[in-house]
Amino acid sequence: MEGVLINPSLSRLKISVPNPLIPSSSRQISIIHRSFPHHHRLRLRIPFAFFQDQFPQKVKEKEEIKEEDAYGEVNRIIGRRTVRSPVFADDGSVTTDILTEYLIEWKDGHTPSWVPADGIAADVVAEYETPWWTAAKKADAAALSSLLADDSISRDPDAEDPDGRTALHFAAGLGSEECIKILAEAGADVNKIERAGGGLTPLHVAAGYGRPLAVKALLEAGADSDIVDGRGRTPLDLIKEVLVATPKGNPAAFGRRMGLEGAAAELEKVVFEWGEVEKVVDGRGEGKHREYLVEWRDGGEREWVKAEWVAEDLVRDYEEGLEYGVAEAVVGQREVDGGKKEYLVKWIDLEEKTWEPEENLDPELVQEFERRQGAEGEKTAGEHAATQETVVG
After folding, report:
1. Are 34 and 13 in contact (CB under 8 A)?
2. Which residue(s) pair with 33 in the sheet?
3. Which CDD domains does this entry report, sorted A to Z (predicted)?
């Protein structure tokens, strides 16, 4: 974006306004730049084949349009949009043509209208675009916020540069948590894929540059941690690839490795956040490198997971050598020393029932047992009352 076009010779030109009197039979668009002593103006002879005829056959095809009616003077740009349209080749293939259009505010009070970028003076475009991209490339949160809050000018938070990158890509690369939040709240697409480069999303950019705070902010804004780039890599895959290429023990690379590992940790939190562990079946490593092989409750393939991501009670049970079983129901209760309760458990995978302390059981099983006990107690009391009434009678 450093090369935003600025051409003083085309300053404050006039642009033709759509004239419905031009017949729709003509399909060509002719753009002519002309110089005048005191100002410049751009003539757009647009037959508007894009729209339905509003005056069919009522206008002579050779009717001349007065020059003063074919021009409008630009006041400023007040909006921007990216237009994608299919292009059909002779061989049957289809590509996408990507164009930028600007919403023009006219000095003569005409209704604002959309005009292709190549039909507007470069300095007029620069006046609108430069503040936005300057703020984005500097991760200037205050400037971005101010631009988005300006009600007189519309700002597209997903505006793309020539490579298809948005302000969110730049904010992610610079690690600006604040800019990411501002852009996301304005409606920016957190999963936007750039057209050039490696087809990266903002999350890929933040991950690849080792920006853990940016990764966290993007994930909280709804970024997809499993989305792949143009080479089929998830953001976590990209980090692992970059880590392999980043030398260990090199003081100059130490900070980069720390950033990459921090970004990986944020992504791993999401990867394992919704996985419900059935049990721990193995362990390896020591200290901060300790990992556990877990079995997932949904039947997924076993995986090695960092110790910090596994529930403490599951880790404790594994380290203490406790075994797991699938309980069918609680069928009995007793009190032991100290007033604690134990419950007789019927297992699905074992023939023999066993007494287990309350803390080893699913609370729902205990509640179901107590509910049954209460129901049976009421039934017994009712039968006893009926017997007594019969005896007395």
Report:
1. no
2. 42
3. CD3_cpSRP43_like
User: Each residue of 114-146: pLDDT tens digit?
Assistant: 999 988 999 999 999 999 999 999 999 999 999
Question: What tokens does 216 get?
Answer: 């966290």
Cα–Cα distance for residue pair 123/5, rounded to 1 Å: 7
Cα separation, 347 vs 325, in Å, equals: 7
Distance CA 234, CA 214 (A): 16
- Residue that is written with structure tokens 């949009």 in the block: 81
Distance between CA 17 and CA 32 in Å, rounded? 14
Radius of gyration of the chain (CA): 35
Pairing of strands 40-45, 14-15: parallel
Q: State how far the Cα of 268 lies from the Cα of 307, in Å rounded to an integer.
A: 12
Residue 254 lies in a domain: yes
Q: Are 204 and 297 within one domain?
A: no
DSSP codes joined into one string, 231-260: TS--HHHHHHHHHHHS-TT-HHHHHHHHHH
Which among 20, 47, 14 has a CA at the least distance from the CA of 32? 14
pLDDT > 80? residue 364: yes
Task: Please give the residue range of the domain that contains residue 307.
Answer: 277-319
Structure tokens at 20: 């419905």
Residue 128 lies in a domain: no
Q: How confident is the model at residue 96 (pLDDT cuts 50, 70, 90)?
A: confident
Amino acid code (one letter) for 106: W
Largest Cα–Cα separation, the chain:
123
Strands (E), the chain: 14-15, 30-35, 40-45, 72-88, 94-106, 113-116, 277-284, 291-296, 303-306, 327-335, 341-347, 354-357
C-alpha to C-alpha distance for 17 and 23, rounded to whole angstroms: 15
DSSP assigned state of 291: E
- Judge whether 306 lies within some domain: yes
Q: Which CATH number goes with the domain that contains 368?
A: 2.40.50.40
